[in-house]
């Protein structure tokens, strides 16, 4: 059953204009014949995996990463990208072998970071989409903004852009829907904690771009030493994917994603 699901996901991603291929720089390294076409499919497989993780569908994510690892092993890469191809293949295997969704989300986020580094090394990469931020105050539009921000953060990792990641995180860090609700009065249990986690992680990413082990979140006007790194941002992204997946599971909802990856009403 997984085969048809993966095939459908690939067809949707490619047919909907998924701009997953590489945009060659004017003086970038030469690429082997057929390389860009293969990378289009690579990008589509990554999109299938990302959406599967958001839905909490680990089997589909594993299957798409199995196919991606095969491509990374058998497709000739330019010399500048061979190291990152090996790292990406190893991380795809980690997603396949993950014991649970949280582990898979973290491995996928690190894989996305490796992709961004490869794009940077090759002076190529996917185009950043410029869809406007969804507006509206109701629950549906709030969640659409969540997904919009997660998409933009993922694209920022693929583009190796810390500033774009921070800008997208600022949208995700908007006031949580739970307001001042106490975790003791939540329904179902655990949702308020996850909501706080999502917004705290996004706020930390918007301010400094990296997660701290003690979960400390700096204030907007607080001076933070050091610059954000794509690796630190990837770690935040993995934790965000995991929190989103857990929350969807607790609420027993499954985001219905359109061909372009945008959410419709949950079912």
Spell the H/E element sequence.
Answer: HHHHHHHHH
Number of strands: 0
Global shape: globular
Major beta sheet summary: none
Mean pLDDT: 76
What percent of residues are in strands? under 5%
Counting DSSP H or I runs of 4 or more residues, the number of helices is 9
| Helix share, percent | 55-70%
How does this structure look, described?
By secondary structure, this protein is an all-alpha fold. The chain has one domain (2-251). It has helices at 2-15, 35-55, 58-74, 82-96, 101-122, 139-158, 162-172, 191-207, 230-251. Helix 2 (35-55) crosses helix 9 (230-251), helix 4 runs antiparallel to helix 5 and helix 8 packs antiparallel against helix 9. The protein is globular, with a radius of gyration of 18 Å. Mean pLDDT is 76; it is low at 4-22.
List the helices and strands and how they pair.
Elements: H1 2-15, H2 35-55, H3 58-74, H4 82-96, H5 101-122, H6 139-158, H7 162-172, H8 191-207, H9 230-251
């Amino acid at each position: 059953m997984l085969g048809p699901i993966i095939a459908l996901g690939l067809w949707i991603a490619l047919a909907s204009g998924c701009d997953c291929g590489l945009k060659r720089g004017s003086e970038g390294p030469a690429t082997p014949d057929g390389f860009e076409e293969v990378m289009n499919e690579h990008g589509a497989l990554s999109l299938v995996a990302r959406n599967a993780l958001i839905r909490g569908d680990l089997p589909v994510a594993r299957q798409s990463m199995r196919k991606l690892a095969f491509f990374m092993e058998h497709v000739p890469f330019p010399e500048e990208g061979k190291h990152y191809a090996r790292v990406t293949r190893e991380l795809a295997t980690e997603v396949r072998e993950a014991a649970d969704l949280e582990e898979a989300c973290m491995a996928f986020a690190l894989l996305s970071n490796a992709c961004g580094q490869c794009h940077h090394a090759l002076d190529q990469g996917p185009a950043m989409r410029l869809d406007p931020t969804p507006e509206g105050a109701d629950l549906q539009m709030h969640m659409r903004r969540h997904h919009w921000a997660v998409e933009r953060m993922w694209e920022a990792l693929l583009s190796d852009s810390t500033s774009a990641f921070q800008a997208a995180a600022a949208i995700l860090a908007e006031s949580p829907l739970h307001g001042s609700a106490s975790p003791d009065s939540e329904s179902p249990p655990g949702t308020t904690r996850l909501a706080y986690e999502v917004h705290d992680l996004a706020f930390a990413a918007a301010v400094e771009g990296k997660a701290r082990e003690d979960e400390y979140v700096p204030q907007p006007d607080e001076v933070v030493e050091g610059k954000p790194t794509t690796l630190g941002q990837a770690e935040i992204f993995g934790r965000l994917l995991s929190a989103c997946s857990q929350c969807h599971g607790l609420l027993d909802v499954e985001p219905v994603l359109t061909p372009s990856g945008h959410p419709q009403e949950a079912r």
